[in-house]
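Q: We require from you a single protein entry containing the residue sequence and its fold in token form, and nothing else.
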Amino acid sequence: MLHYEKTFLGEFTSAIDTPAFFFSPRGKNDPLAELQATISSFIEEPHSQCTFPARAMFVSQNVATLPDVQCDAFNSFLSNINATGVSLIYASGYLGNPASMYGHVFLKFNNTSQSELLDNTYNYGARYPDNENPIAYILNGIFGGYDGYFANQKYHHQTLTYTESELRDLWEYSLSLTSKEISILLAHLWELEQIPMTYYFFKQNCAYQISQLLSLATGTSYMPNDKAWIMPFDIVTAIKKRHPSLIEAVKYHPSRQEALYKKFAQLTDKEKTRLTVALSAEEMTAKTLTELLEPLNEDQMKRVIDTAFDYFSYLSQSQSQSENDMSVLLQQRKAFVDVRFKLPPGNSRFEPITPAPPDTAQDTTLLQVSMMHNNDADTGVSVRFRANYYDLLTVNPARIPFSELSTFDVRINIFEGTKPNLAELTALRITNLNAASTGLPGDDKIAWKFASGYRDLSVNNDIGAFYIDGFLGKSYSPAFDIALYGGLSSTATSKNNLGGYLAVGAEFGGVFNISPHYAMSFSVGHQRYANALEEKRTYATWEHRFLHHQQYDVRALLRYDEAFEYSIALSHYF
């Protein structure tokens, strides 16, 4: 309740620095002194209970009898929210913002007497200057350069931001909290109004603060026991494992993009063709659209038109649309609306598709041991540790399809007769294939990759260099679980032992999720060095993942980069 944490020396200190949050001058570091001062203040100045109602509840229930007091402002606050239930909302990752790559969680207080969009939400996040430099933003976020606050907003604001603008799926976990537990949550949020706490991307973040709030209400800890950081994914899995009865139901709220993809996937080939032809026309009227859709029956026309409405909503949020593009979209949309009004009322027929929720994905920290053979260095063992988060082949429900997000990925190789060698330390690796799955105009974003870190350029342990890898291209998803890509790749290194500092070339590859128990990916690339065109580099990888389990899988890898390397690995996720 006072956000105390133990230091390395075993002493207590609060994450809150605001003096007004404490009654005792020593309250930040002395819980007993703060408790004594709190009781004295609540008895001698009863109205101070209205500033800290959660503390007053705790003291009156566990320590001492307190004078009765009427807290009009707090009671009005409770009445306005009128919460009959609470939901934990998980938002999938968003690779367009470093703070949102790992997903997000917030609380929604449900009021059954009004529209869900008017429900109140509480969201914890960092406050930072407008137009903050991206590098400064990342560094301040990692090292505690920003203050974090709880903010109260209506749910319609959250859906507009996440599902409409950022195209992120939302998962709503309805929680079985009692009215007393809901009251303690709201009382403590009242206490934290405009109270800053130092924000850290990997620790004191949204997941940490929401976890602390829920622990205050239920008495159960949802913090990871086996690592020093917490991600939004960790809190939903902790609840599922430690307190499954807390979850009453799980509801899926698809983004505009996913709503379109799920409807388009259910169209017949004939319906897809008619929709594509109609949306490819730069000039469209109700008459020409009616003629295009004439081969379809009434139900098919409704399905095509409803899918088109999702398409218009999806593209209207795209920042890449020019004024001319938007003008064409509005003209097309008007034609579809006019034709729909001419059809009899009634819903189109689509099967509801609910993907697996985030708590079924593989855990986020990886420890992997491999047996490997390298043509230039014989047989050895490789040990790998990845702090976060997932790759193209992990079991990835509720994560961005055909993407990878890895941080602090370390691999150490040990060959017979040699010392352990740091083969690679990847600080950050991001892949987003943005695989277009409809072929409709405008649904063709850029596929890209970025990675930076340090790696050994030779199996002889004598050529290590810092590197930056990049890729820009296009991708296509011919089937729901398949993505193919190709484009321009580049590699910059701090040493030119392999021929140059900058290599540029082409790369193509693919990802195939064949079944829940088997997936594979491959990539092939060829580059030439910009400062030594006669020097070249060819590389290839072919990786397989076996098993479908949250904590384990088996990997097989064939890799070529100056030498062939084969490995089989056992992976443990936690």
The mean pLDDT is 94. The chain is about 30% helix and 35% strand. The longest strand covers residues 464-479. Residues 263-342 form one domain.
